[in-house]
Amino acid sequence: MTYSARSGWLAWATGLLLICGAPATAAQSAPAGPDRGAGDEAVPAAVDQLPHRRVSADTSARRLPARSASRTTKTPQATPAKAPAKKATRGRIGRAPASIKVTGTLTSIEEVCPVGLRRTTTLYQDSFEKGDLPEPTLTTGFGVADSEAGEGSRFARSILTQATATAPDKPYHTLFLPLLSTSRTARTIVSLRVKGDFGKDTAYVAVNDDSGWIEPSAQWGAVTLDVTAAVNAPSSDRAAGEMDVRVLNYPQSITGSTTLDIDDVHIYQCAPPAATGVRGDFNGDGLSDLLGVDRTGDLVMSAGRRNGTLGAPQRIGHGWARMTWIGSPGDLTGDRRPDVLARRADGVLLLYAGHGMGRFSRARVVGVGWQGMTSILTPGDTNGDRVPELLARDASGRLLRWSFTPGGRALVAKAIIGFGFGTYTRLLAPGDLNRDGRGDLVGIRADGVMLAHYPDRIGRLGRALGLSQGWSLFTAVSAPGDLNGDSRGDLVARRADGSLWTFLSLSKVTGIQAGSHANRFRLFG
Questions:
Q1: How far is 525 from 429, CA to CA, in rounded Å?
Q2: What is the pTM of this model?
Q3: I need a labelling partner for 518 at 20 to 30 A (CA). Which of 6, 40, 41, 443 fits?
């Protein structure tokens, strides 16, 4: 005998078993889930609806169930929870898992958070390393397997056959996660890793009344869902902010066996980043970040870290291939979020007002004729007026300074502040090096010697002072700002082999390796 699955609608709330009265038939139910497609078998009138919790205001104060290593899960193919825990082997995947899409009424995203937001509060996480399941009394068919997991050595597994189905009229296995309460003012995200030998329209995920089919994947892949709409949708049988998450192994029909593996479940919230006022801090963590452009013209950001390293590059924009220079002057628009300046190949200078997490307004022209400048610098405030300035070197070696009008709408007050700067092969503005509150300047000569220029109270540059030598080893040097939060400007440099190094002290060329394969990106001073 073959157990037939329900036809395409798979409703969770509509047509549920009524508290008083007869079960709802298929004709009484409204579509609420993703379609399996035409040609599915008819729904038997006596078949119960898919599993869920009935949630009411009386259960809104429920807390997460206690997790205990002594709990056993008597389900098919389950590894006994009392088995000695193996030491987790981190990083077995070796790289970030591929993103897996979900089709249905849930919204798939490819990043940790929707664009412009950052992860804030963790509501729940489980990698099954303790050997137990989060809701053993509700879960059916899933157990804990001991093998190569997404992270660690254990994961939740369902192997569905005719013999192990929940019941003849319930041809599925269900993994329940704890009932959660979440803020309705933040974005709520569900993330998990998935693999198995399941086919199309088999792995099913549901959050409250919304649901979707997980695309097949024989290797560990990442499913990330923005479930905010499902959490915020009004319901008569669920308290405000309650979240009921289930994952099902539910093939269209059972022929042989179907395996579904789940690991690394994370449920968390995302919110707009803080406005820190730090130059180059695009993700709101108070640390400057590194910008670059890859070979396809995408703008990428690597977040600064307090240990001096950099986060993995994240794409935050596209269409930047025409830019010959990019830098952050700090906050020009008065919202305490850093903005970005960029020069096109035709010499047009553009301002992109920042909104946090790599989001920017449309470009606004603030200057023309900049193709003749051999170096452009964003040192921050150099003259103590609390407004960022812009510096540039022309072909004759003169160093020029511009001020911005309120809101960064235009450049004004051009002034010559130095001569002879053509002796430097690179000019950089890392920020405040001596903690006097003013942005400083460094230059690197052809022999690899680095010298510093410190402005006085009105922005005049003093004579050059030697800092360090050996900088000719690097093919590119960038000055993103304060990467580690020590209130001093830092540098990032790239060697010919593509290795990336951060320098938290410029008095010696002793860096921290922060990345590799950086030859794929253009870095800007």
A1: 8
A2: 0.61
A3: 443
